[in-house]
Amino acid sequence: MADMINTSIPANLTKRQNGSPWAPLREPLFRSLWLAAVISYTGTWMQNVGAGWLMTQLTMSPLMVSLVQAAAMLPVFLVILPAGALADMVDRRRLLLITQGWMVVAAAALGIMSLTRSVTPWVLLAFTFLLGIGAVMNDPAWQAITPEVVSPPQHAPAVALNSVGFNVARAVGPALGGMVIAVAGSGVAFLLNAASFFGVIFFLYRWKRPHLADMETGRVSDAILTGLRYVRGAPVVRCVLIRTGAFSLGASALLALLPLVARPHGASGYGLLLGFFGLGALAGASVLHRLRTRLSVDGVVAFAIVLFATMTFAAGQIHNFGGLSLILFLSGTAWIGILACLNVAAQTMAPSFLRARTLSVYLLVLQGGMAIGSALWGAVANKVGVPTALLCSAFAMVAGLLAVRRYRLTSHELALEPAVVRD
Q1: Is 19 inside a domain boundary?
Q2: Within 10 A of 235 (CB to CB), how many other CB atoms are there?
Q3: Per mean pLDDT, which of 55-59, 101-105, 208-212, 365-369 is the most reliable?
Q4: Of 82, 173, 270, 413, which has the maximum CB count within 10 A?
Q5: Is 7 within a domain?
Q6: Average per-residue pLDDT in the chain?
Q7: How far apart are CA 253 and CA 325, in angstroms?
Q8: Domain ranges, residue 144
Q9: pTM of this prediction?
Q10: How would you label 174-191 residue by residue, b for 16+ Cβ within 10 Å and e otherwise?
Q11: Cα–Cα distance, 116 to 105 (Å, whole number)
């Protein structure tokens, strides 16, 4: 019998969520990191716009365009599990400094090569892959440090604020990137992305991270196996992973094929459409708390998936800029409803000493599904066209939702466990 997890929200969780969602920003340490992260995310979105648009200038093949997103996410299959194990075994601060430096070098090199016009489609994919390696190595440690930079009562709001910060950048970065690309080219956007990492690097350099008593020791392979055994034996973890996988495979088509949908509107139009997606995500974040007081977590996710699938289909049928802007706005609203619930569940479904490893498995399912889906829908678009590919992906999302309806998401034990500090 499939796992059925109670979706009721405990009274202590409801009380905690009734506080100000902005309260973590009153804490200087978290506020500094949050602001630096927003700047870095903005640069990342400029990079994404630049890479997607540059590929449309190098080739009009839907498969090659969709492979830009796939190349960024492919490293999740190669290094996400070791990255999660390392983040539980070594000083996360030092690991993050290394990964941030890696991404600075990769983005700067791609920017210089773009400005010198020495980039080919495969060179662009190669450097996108290298940036993806850095991002994947970074992600488990990055998400796992949240409990270390905010007080225990603010853990859950801090996780939500991280999503808000990402979507602030999603609203600003693409529009800014589109303007930069239109004026100066993709190479400048790549160099600005390289510069955007320095705020986070400066924070990490100055941060005095405490020593933790529950740090894993031994071999990386043994640590990975320990994490996988926990994931296999925890019903709530399986529910989160199954629901994530069912969504991510179909949901990847819209963003992967958007450069082709937006091409008639130019680089600025492409950036603005991604900006509308980000604005929709911000709007969704502002009403998500209220919506979750009326619906279960599972209900919010199901409603948002149906909305996102509908907008994915509509993106292949409507070609005027105003209509596409509304479609992307509503898509962003649905996206944050899905990802915010999944991210909070993922960050709170394991004890602190296993947190990075369980997060790495979650990211493997989420980003791996997006990578496979990007390549799949690009190949489908090559055969039958972009509108039909978007229709098929919309159908896949709804079919996936129905197929896993017995695996219910839950709000149970949503509080993050505090890190244990060694004296």
Answers
A1: no
A2: 13
A3: 101-105
A4: 173
A5: no
A6: 81
A7: 17
A8: 28-403
A9: 0.69
A10: bbbbbbbbeeebbbbbbb
A11: 17
